[in-house]
Design a protein that fits this description.
Layout lengths: L8 E4 L6 E4 L14 E7 L2 E6 L5 E10 L2 E10 L3 E4 L7 H14 L4 H11 L8 E8 L1 H7 L15 E7 L2 H12 L6 H12 L5 H11 L5
Antiparallel strand pairs: 1-2, 3-4, 4-7, 5-6, 5-8, 8-9
Helix pairs in contact: 1-2, 4-6
């Protein structure tokens, strides 16, 4: 994330006294707030992106990683509900990375800044199994969510926040429901295999199971 041409910024932590040298202000964290963006999976690689904000989203990527195979589609200037469709043909990690770099540059980042950001995502956003939408939040919304004050004030401030929405397709929900039903199988081997498959979802296992509980009428 630091492979840029920026000048170094030296910061001393007033609490610990430790001194750090950084190249740009980079924030990554967990927050609890509502955003005007949601995605609905319809099945058969079709999705609907609902956006209720005032300023159009600069870009949004629909990305699916399925056993390492990458498929994605890019959409620009989203100001209303948009139908999104995954292409049938697979793409490469390089194609996805290059397209995301171009999108970030169009949003105001320098080329090396965009490349550095994308590099930090390759193992997670571009590597984790699942279907997700990555989108650029308008800077006005970013400023409201995370107020930033710099002294002395710079001539120009460019802030880029990329949101991530995970979604389960109807096909995935049906597969998970089947796995859950096998947790009560009389065959110990079937129970073990089902539990192992569910654990493969990693940190998405809990929300996936919660979704199944809400949608399934199977008592098991």
């Amino acid at each position: 994330a630091r492979e840029t041409d920026s000048a170094h910024l030296q910061i001393t932590d007033p609490t610990s006294g430790n001194t750090y040298r950084e190249k740009f202000l980079f924030y990554r964290g967990v927050g609890n707030f509502k955003l005007p963006v949601r995605v609905q999976a319809s099945g058969s690689d079709h999705f609907t992106l609902d956006y209720s904000g005032g300023v159009p989203l600069q870009f949004a990527f629909l990305v699916q990683i399925d056993h390492g195979a990458i498929r994605f589609a890019r959409y620009d200037q989203i100001a209303q509900p948009t139908q999104m469709i995954l292409p049938s043909q697979a793409s490469s990690m390089k194609e996805l990375s290059d397209e995301m770099v171009r999108a970030l540059v169009s949003n105001g980042l320098f080329d090396k800044e965009a490349q550095a950001m994308v590099k930090t995502w390759k193992s997670s956003w571009f590597g984790e199994e699942g279907t997700r939408v990555l989108y650029s939040l308008p800077q006005g919304d970013t400023d409201k969510l995370l107020p930033l004050h710099l002294t002395p004030a710079p001539r120009e401030t460019i802030r880029v926040m990329v949101g991530r929405l995970e979604t389960l397709t109807p096909e995935q929900e049906a597969s998970i429901a089947t796995l859950v039903s096998h947790l009560g199988d009389n065959n110990p081997s079937a129970r073990t295999q089902a539990a192992s498959r569910i654990r493969e979802f990693g940190r998405f296992a809990e929300p996936a199971l919660t979704r199944v509980i809400a949608t399934s009428d199977d008592p098991e």
